[in-house]
Amino acid sequence: MSGLRARQKADRHRRIIEAAAELFREAGYEGAKIEAIAAQAEVSVGTIYNYYENKGDILGAIVSLEVNEVLNAGQGVVARPPANVGDALDTLIGIYIEHSLHYLSKEMWRQAMAISTQLPDSPFGQAYTALDRALTEQIRALIARLQALGLVRQDIDGAALGELIFNNMNMMFIEFVKRDAAKIAELRAAIRRQNRILVAAIAV
Amino acid sequence: MSGLRARQKADRHRRIIEAAAELFREAGYEGAKIEAIAAQAEVSVGTIYNYYENKGDILGAIVSLEVNEVLNAGQGVVARPPANVGDALDTLIGIYIEHSLHYLSKEMWRQAMAISTQLPDSPFGQAYTALDRALTEQIRALIARLQALGLVRQDIDGAALGELIFNNMNMMFIEFVKRDAAKIAELRAAIRRQNRILVAAIAV
DNA sequence: CACAAAAACAGAATTGACTCAATTTTAGAA
DNA sequence: TTCTAAAATTGAGTCAATTCTGTTTTTGTG
């Protein structure tokens, strides 16, 4: 077991993802034809569909890499948050947003988001939902941490609050990727302004 | 002017929309082939593309009808809101949500949302963004009304708050249409729970 | 070392959205 | 009424994602 076949499989997966990532960056999602990805990965079209259900799933694999990195980076903030509710939220959200365009262009994000709502039951659709949930959980964890530190009122419904903060941030991010002209600094400022209302309500 | 040509044009528009609405309902968005819509509307494929840029725009026209109805219904609540902040929000949001599946199935919503993020600059993409903005404005108007009635604190940032409430509701709605099993009552309850945090913070 | 079953691959064929050049219809002037 | 330009319609053709079927490769067994 784990012989030639498994090695070749892993290798082909990698080659397909690398080829797709390069072509998506260069030509955009729509512009990257499956035939071109297949050629670049030195694999046939049929083989790509043996590995991924559809073109969207290939993008999905790339998105997952990105979001998992972000989740890792976020853990540091949850572990040692700034000693101020507003700053703590801003720092965590800042990590999410600043990382977001590292590997993925806005166009790639748009496609990924579209696919995840269009086909919520495809492998990628489910993975994307899981990633959203993981981000929500991380924000909830931060709130719990702040409550433990006595910075947030104990009687606050942390689960609902975490969801509220995530949902708002996510929607703002969606609008952000929809407008090519939108700038990261503006996005962060707008979210800060919105969260200020919440911070006033929950800070001790 | 407004002679035969204009009448035929309006008639064809109507026939295409009616045919599409019926087929979308019956066969789903993907399942409704353009050729079938053309046949049902007694029009050629080319003519459809003369009226709509792409398949998504046809769905977009149907979505617009739906959302505009919702906006109208919402006006009544803004004009005479319940004399309690929580109830006022719940009533307005209730109107949005209860109407939402009147003409559109969850699958149609998923497609519509996907297209609007995928092609934000297409006619439908822009229209959808405008509809979102109109809904946000209506929530802001409600908040302003509640402030005028002395039910919401004057020092609250109504613009940011309205956006926050809309964004959260919209994201919850997106998750709702992604899960076929999700029920309207659960959605409303979850949003109420989230808004409770805000209500506590802003009510006089 | 065969060999049969299972797994993976290849690429031709299918499918369906969208385009475009040719044709038909309408408006309005003479 | 007749004619011409503009507007609209048509449907066959194009393009690219996805499917399908026959072939090749790998594995494990005798």
Q: Key terms for this structure?
A:
Arc Repressor Mutant, subunit A; mainly alpha; homodimer; elongated; DNA-binding; Tetracycline Repressor, domain 2; 204 residues
Describe this structure in words.
The structure is a homodimer of 204-residue chains. The first copy, chain A, folds into 2 domains: 1-51, Arc Repressor Mutant, subunit A, CATH 1.10.10; 55-202, Tetracycline Repressor, domain 2 (Orthogonal Bundle). Helices cover 80% and strands 0% of the residues of chain A. Chain A has helices at 4-31, 34-41, 45-51, 55-79, 85-100, 106-118, 123-148, 158-178, 184-202. Chain A binds chain B through residues 110-111, 113-115, 117-118, 120, 125, 129, 156-157, 160-161, 163-164, 167-168, 170-172, 174-175, 177-179, 190, 193-194, 196-198, 200-202, and chain B through 110-111, 113-118, 120, 125, 129, 156-157, 160-161, 163-164, 167-168, 170-172, 174-175, 177-179, 190, 193-194, 196-198, 200-202. Chain A binds a DNA duplex (30 and 30 nucleotides) through residues 3-5, 8-9, 12, 33-35, 43-47, 49-50, 54-55.
